[in-house]
Amino acid sequence: MIDVNINRNDRTDLYEQVAAEIRRAIADGEAAPGERLPPAKDLADVLGVNPNTVLRALRLLRGEGLLEFRRGRGVSVIAAPEHGAVVQRARELVEVARRYGYSSQEIIDIILSVG
């Protein structure tokens, strides 16, 4: 099982602490791409938190592109944190560009022009 610790005295939300610890475990190689994570219930039991807290953290990491949920196979690591950071920035770019009325193709063109 990956080593995940939380600090109940920290003002950071518990789900964010859990997500940060899993992110760190992936970055440190404790959980490599292709590896399955323990079930959320097991992680919750070890941490002494509600399973919904762990599930919220896992969904956050899935949104960052680090984890994949597969029915019947659990949660697997699919990328390193660097990839997740790029995905997050891309989402932010798309959000801002759409707010200003840019189409998907225009966003792609902008990315290609600066790359």
What does this protein look like?
The chain is mainly α and 115 residues long. The protein has a single domain (1-115), classed as Arc Repressor Mutant, subunit A (Orthogonal Bundle). The chain contains five helices and two strands, in the order H-H-H-E-E-H-H. Strands 1-2 form a two-stranded antiparallel ribbon. A hairpin with a 3-residue loop joins strand 1 (67-70) and strand 2 (74-77).
Spatial shape: elongated
Give average pLDDT, whole number: 88
Please identify the structural class as seen in this structure. Answer: mainly alpha
Number of helices: 5
Largest sheet, spatial ordering of strands: 1-2
List the domain count as a whole number: 1
- Please identify, by name, the CATH architecture: Orthogonal Bundle
Number of strands: 2
What is the CATH class designation?
Mainly Alpha
Unreliably modeled segments: none
InterPro entries: Tscrpt_reg_HTH_GntR (IPR000524), WH-like_DNA-bd_sf (IPR036388), WH_DNA-bd_sf (IPR036390)
Protein name: GntR family transcriptional regulator
Pfam families: GntR (PF00392)
Domain HTH gntR-type: 12-80
